[in-house]
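Work Package 4 report. The design task specified in the project plan requires that, given a folded chain encoded as structure tokens, an amino acid be chosen for each position. We show below one input record used in the internal validation round.
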């Protein structure tokens, strides 16, 4: 592949491997609390896609909790020199009082072991006060904003109850880039009703943006228990991609994307205890090994 994976990019930036800490900001989502709608996007879990994040406790304790999970897989040598990305993952992390959020994110950014602060959010939750807060934060440490687009197709977005049209994404993306903030875009392959061509259209759309996104996260649709999509699938199953079909699709996606987009991820790996389909999602090692063969 022509693009760099995030792990490679971070080694270039910081001269060492950098690890992500999945954290919680205590935010909910306007697509859940009635501001836009109730229930959220049909594919989103009760944990707001953050089942692996630390619980919402004081941030210092969250970070220590998350570091222990990361370090359990690593040698003890060099623990005091490791760098981390503070990744606020669950729900919509710019949906709330900007001053409260600034103090929370500032606490993370001020730590010497935190290299950058990554904030997952929706494009419709980036008002002027929020953007000003992010710019203040960026004076301390690099800030990444991860935008959940999922698809460029408004018809699909309506079907999965995303809650905003493509024009809202375009405005938020433009404002982030004008402010000099890194933007990482999330997309989902295999949303109900989308053809292979529809999925590649979303990738072509992102490749056409000026400037191009700083990063991209691509994941297969994961149908989870407790979601509206899970109930829909169990009542009336629709086709899901095989691992081989997904790998072929990713190969085509990478051929479209410019080489200066950093690839943050190419598969999703949701909680196994909630997974309904596709079954191959439960075997992350097999999925990644198969993908490497396709991409070589």
């Amino acid at each position: 592949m022509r693009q760099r994976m995030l792990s490679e990019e971070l080694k270039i930036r910081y001269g060492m491997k950098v690890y992500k800490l999945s954290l919680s900001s205590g935010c909910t989502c306007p697509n859940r609390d009635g501001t836009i709608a109730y229930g959220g996007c049909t594919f989103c879990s009760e944990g707001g896609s953050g089942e692996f994040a630390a619980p919402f406790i004081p941030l210092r304790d969250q970070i220590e909790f998350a570091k222990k999970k990361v370090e359990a897989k690593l040698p003890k040598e060099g623990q005091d020199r490791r760098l981390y990305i503070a990744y606020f993952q669950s729900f919509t992390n710019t949906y709330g009082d900007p001053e409260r959020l600034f103090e929370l994110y500032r606490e993370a950014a001020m730590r010497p072991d935190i290299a950058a602060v990554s904030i997952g959010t929706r494009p419709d939750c980036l008002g002027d006060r929020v953007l000003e807060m992010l710019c203040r934060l960026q004076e301390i440490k690099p800030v990444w904003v991860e935008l959940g687009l999922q698809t460029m197709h408004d018809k699909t977005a309506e079907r999965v109850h995303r809650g905003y049209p493509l024009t809202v994404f375009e405005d938020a993306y433009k404002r982030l880039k004008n402010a000099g903030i890194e933007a990482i875009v999330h997309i989902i392959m295999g949303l109900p009703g989308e053809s292979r061509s529809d999925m590649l259209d979303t990738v072509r759309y992102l490749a056409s943006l000026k400037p191009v996104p700083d990063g991209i996260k691509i994941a297969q649709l994961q149908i989870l228990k407790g979601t509206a999509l899970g109930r829909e699938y169990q009542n009336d199953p629709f086709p899901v991609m095989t691992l081989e079909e997904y790998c072929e699709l990713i190969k085509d996606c990478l051929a479209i994307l410019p080489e200066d987009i950093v690839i943050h991820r190419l598969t999703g790996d949701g909680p196994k205890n909630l997974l309904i389909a596709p079954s191959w999602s439960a075997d992350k090692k097999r999925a990644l090994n198969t993908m490497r063969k396709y991409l070589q």
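The longest strand covers residues 114-121. Validation will be extended to a larger panel in the next phase.
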